[in-house]
Amino acid sequence: MILRGKVFKYGENVDTDVIIPARYLNTTDPQELARHCLEDLNGDFVRRMQPGDIIVAEENFGCGSSREHAPLAIKACGVSCVIAKSFAPIFFRNAINIGLPILESPEAVDSIQAGDEVEVDLEKGAITDLTTGISFPAIPYPQFMRRIVEAGGYVNFVKENLSRRR
């Protein structure tokens, strides 16, 4: 799976309360959550981002509470991938479970700038900053995780596997 988009860059410890503020947790509707994604950190994020754009962040992205709403809001607003130096473990699992591609690559985070155009190859674990022409390694997903993400999340993955067995 190849992903491509413009970069929105953030610092360290972007927590789930900033990704989707608690005042919006009374809904699980992905489109409603998407309208408020990152609004307390970057009020015009949702207006400026285009489908396919990519978030790049420092360490500990998705820390804080374990709400699945956070990766769901990111995915629903059209972000194709999140690249960070590290992710909070529960955010990592929630992202894969809902089909949001995330990659760890400290080298890429240190080099890529806001506004750069980036291409991500999930199968190879390669990140290329198309603006500078520099490529960076990331740990590729194991095949089973890639299949979950490509299916759009764990629920879709299970449905596909069950339908094949019939």
Task: Supply Rg.
Answer: 15 Å
Number of helices: 8
Tell me which oligomeric state these chains represent: single chain
How many strands in all? 7
Helix fraction, binned, reads 25-40%
Distance between the termini: 27 Å
Instruction: Classify the beta-strand content into a percent band.
Output: 15-25%
In terms of per-residue confidence, which ranges show pLDDT below 50 for 5 or more consecutive residues? Answer: none
Largest beta sheet: what is the strand line-up? 4-3-2-1-5-6-7
Nearest-integer average pLDDT:
94
**Main β-sheet, in a few words?**
7 strands, mixed
What series of H and E elements makes up the topology? Answer: EHHHEHEHEHEEEHH
The class by helix and strand makeup works out as alpha/beta
Shape estimate? globular
Structural features, described:
This protein is an alpha/beta fold. It contains 8 helices and 7 strands, in the order E-H-H-H-E-H-E-H-E-H-E-E-E-H-H. It has a 7-stranded mixed β-sheet. A hairpin with a 4-residue loop joins strand 6 and strand 7 (134-137). Helix 4 packs across helix 5. It is globular. The mean pLDDT is 94.
Task: Name the descriptors.
166 residues; single chain; alpha/beta; seven-stranded mixed sheet
In a nutshell, what does this entry contain?
With 166 residues, the protein is an alpha/beta fold. It has eight helices and seven strands; from the N terminus they run βαααβαβαβαβββαα. A hairpin with a 4-residue loop joins strand 6 (126-129) and strand 7 (134-137).
Q: What is the topology?
A:
Blueprint: E1 2-10, H1 16-19, H2 30-34, H3 45-48, E2 54-57, H4 69-76, E3 81-84, H5 89-98, E4 102-104, H6 106-111, E5 117-121, E6 126-129, E7 134-137, H7 143-150, H8 154-165
Parallel strand pairs: 1-2, 2-3, 3-4
Antiparallel strand pairs: 1-5, 5-6, 6-7
Helix pairs in contact: 4-5
